[in-house]
Amino acid sequence: MVLPNYFDKSVSEALISRINKLTSESKPLWGTMDAGQMMAHCCVTYEMIFTEKHPKPNAFLGFILRLLVKPGVVNEKPYKKSSQTAPAFLMKGEKDFYKEKKRLVDYIRETQALGSSHFEGKASHSFGILSATEWNNLLYKHIDHHLSQFGV
Length: 152
Known about the structure:
globular; mainly alpha; single chain
């Protein structure tokens, strides 16, 4: 199954339209995060792309991530419900729904505007060099998973 092209403006705007259906009162169909925490969780991916906020894994952990985790993250197979996540993605405490929503939408638009050519051969924080297709799969299926978690 080929995933939709995250870098296509109509696809990224469709994701944003789904985000706009969420409210601070939206409840998950599974899992424990509330809507604000979910959006903050999704923003971590973009923080790892655009900021230096999160330390990169050491060489050994990087090797393990590339060997064991990367194949499941960059393929086209959807994530299972309540999948385990990396520590940097765990959200504790209250998050400002509106602030996190704006950040997430801004990150999606920034990524889409850069386009797939910007991401071809770009190193990821945890998985090394990725193709534009691998970036597409990583970005699209992560946000789609969490929007589906909230029924949108």
